[in-house]
Fold each of these.
Amino acid sequence: MSTAKLTLGPILFHWDADRKRDFYARIADEAPIDTVYLGEVVCSKRSPFFDRHYPEVIERLERAGKQVVLSTLAEVVLPRERRAITELCAQTDYPVEVNNAAGLSAASGRPHRIGPMMNVYNERSMAYLARPGAAHFTLPAELPRGAAEGLARTAADLGAATEVQVFGRASLAVSARCYHARAHRRTKDDCQFVCGEDPDGMPLRTLDGQDMLAINGIQTLSHSYVNLIAELDEMRAMGIDHYRLMPHSVDMVAVATIFADRAAGRIDAAQAAERIEALDIGAPFSNGFWHGIAGHRYWPARLHAAST
Amino acid sequence: MTGAPELICPAGTPATLRAAVDAGADAVYCGFQNATNARNFSGLNFTPDEMQAAVGYAHARGAKVLLALNTFPPAGRFDLWQQAADDGAAMGIDAFIVADIGVAAYLADHHPGCRLHLSVQAAASSPEAISYYCERFGVRRVVLPRILTVPEIRQLKSEIPCEIETFVFGNHGLMVEGRCSLTNYAVGRSTNMDGVCSPASEVHYQRAENGALTAQLGCHVIDRFEAGQQAGYPTICKGRYRAPVRDDPYYAFEEPVSLNLMDMLPSLIGAGVDAFKIEGRQRSRAYVGAVVGAFRAAIDAVMAGQTPPSADLIALTEGQKQTHGAFATKKWR
């Protein structure tokens, strides 16, 4: 069985440049994370705020022994978005994670990664993408364990790696429309970057006050945080060897440490559950997608202390 | 642009298919009774025998039948999609509407003569993405996501090696299709894998003493209607929610509204659109007949250089509201 590796997914939210730099500096210095995905995945309007800081952040992370992977946009429509994804997929300095089919041709012929928005649901899609060089697949957030097991087996046959998001809000939808701007009675072109006001997304509650979703610009996320720490052993046995933590404003070094301790067997499942619930993230955990039930649910329910 | 654009019409049942063909559809799209298509609702869709008969009926009247094979087979279940592809090919289906790379690769490998259309569920919205599918799988037409303006469509057309099909009427999907797990998050049925969005089995209406009606999907309240107000179907992206920056509940994504581009047909034709698609395989035979008839007359008039007859389709729209959506202005975004 290969070594379990913890990865840190791209920051989905519009954090300001200082916050991102401080965040990655601390990840570099303190977090037991092997691979860090960098890049603006959600909204191309945000890119200019951080583009010039990448060289410094990459250097810092690499000096700390982290592997850096560059993630592309998930939605590509405008000329500047087309240029961005084509350039990113054509560069050869860093491995790239492709999140939109617009990058596939430019990335082919060299090893590259396929991100969770690329809809690899089955063995044939995986095998097809592997031929021109896809060697690492992060599975769609909604994929249930049975299908994940089949894909992990296919990946092993292809010599590719499999990754699953194990912590953080799940991406549920993207749109051309910016719902952050809409909430503030603005349009996307005149958004004034109001998404920056919500470091973990803007909460959407149902009419009877139930927390349900979180808005992040054009993206809709789950209110609950995916937490698959209790499923790490099962994933490991399936051959899934990369576990993705999504950045949030909660202490991500603490999150990474708990997952690393659990993956290495330094703490048992009960201790891990206890420590992760003590983080007090302000939202319930969920693992329903993995178990093939409603995504917002946590199974088994008895571990779901924070839920209503 | 070589000829008149095709009118592509929905059919959830054999009777609706006949109505669409009789009302002037150039092509009808439909699916089998399982998860291989994105309208996998009970009581809807075609048995293999019905599909074969539908192909016969349509072909005898000069219309085509397109098979919606536009969901994403999860690992371990590919056989179902493979069977649908094989059955469709044997029946003489005119084109397969596909979204999944594995399904496209299977059809290109095993049925190389078949015509492939790229489903809106593939979310291909750039020349690079569309060209990828054309070059790899021989895709001949792309169904565009409902997120592009007319000038963007015109530009796109000049950069891709295939035909363009755009939606012109019906449900106004807000999320990038094929990338939406909202239903699965709420109730545990996947739009991508199971072909269901807001399944009726999970919809509940509750009447309060004051007559107000609450519409729920699973355990989530999606909207509430006062007594006497017409109640809408609870779809997550058409629901009302509360947000910290809003004093009152609001439609966080979009109001219940239907897309209607009838008055934009000339500009869409000018932009190079090759086919117009009407949404609504879940709709009744009467609805489909009326909408198809109206668009048939409008396209024929535009192609004859005449002003399209004014057709009042407002009664057939969701919540009696219609929109140009993203097509008319970037402000929609």
Note: The radius of gyration of chain B is 20 Å.
Amino acid sequence: MERPRVRLSASVIATGETIEIRTLISHPMESGYRRDADGAVVPRKIITRFRCEFEGREVFTWELRPGVAANPYLQFRVRPPGSGQLAFTWTDDDGAEVSISESVTVT
Amino acid sequence: MTGTGFTRRQALLAGAAFVLGAGTGPGTARATNGWQAALSAFTDGLQPVASGITLDLPEIAENGNMVPMTIRVESPMTPDDHVAEVIVIATDNPEPEVSRFRFTPLAGRAEVVTRIRLARSQEVIAAARMADGSTRIDRRQVSVIVGGCGA
């Protein structure tokens, strides 16, 4: 999988504030319902899961199905309880994974 | 096809062929794709309340391959009172379950934005299950000009 992009609205926040996370990954999300020009079904190949963890604890998980548009875009929120690492992991049909991590500081 | 490569027009035609090919035609998928069972399983058979959750979708989507969607659920997101999971159901897609979002209190706010595929004009449903097992629901009708062939 290609390297995803992750953007945080802020990396330094006050206790109790939330951070808006925007992610984008380049992927065809081939649904398994589409046919090619010769009429043959194009095999399914999609990203099935996106997971965000803070210091190993689950924050948010997205289960993707073929009805998610190509190049999955996601915007969501995180309220870190303290300073630490946010980890973002995408997994596809073949079990391939790609991860990114970002530091946040809570003052 | 005239062998001039995979043009936008061909892509649109392929999409149309998909719509006609899936479930034998518009209108039949609604009865056969099993979305009611998926929703009922999610809500554990309970009647969800139609408040405290907002599903935002355009009334008219020119391109069913990429329809922007926002979901917000009102919740303090504390350990005792938070959104556990949200399901998105496209009632007339060949595969009605589009996404599930699982939240924990660390999310701080139950809000997601993404882009979905809609095979044709239809009603889309978002339902939330809270930490106490109660459920909420919102619905939007979307008119799709060109159906998303990959739904």
Note: Chain A has a mean pLDDT of 96.
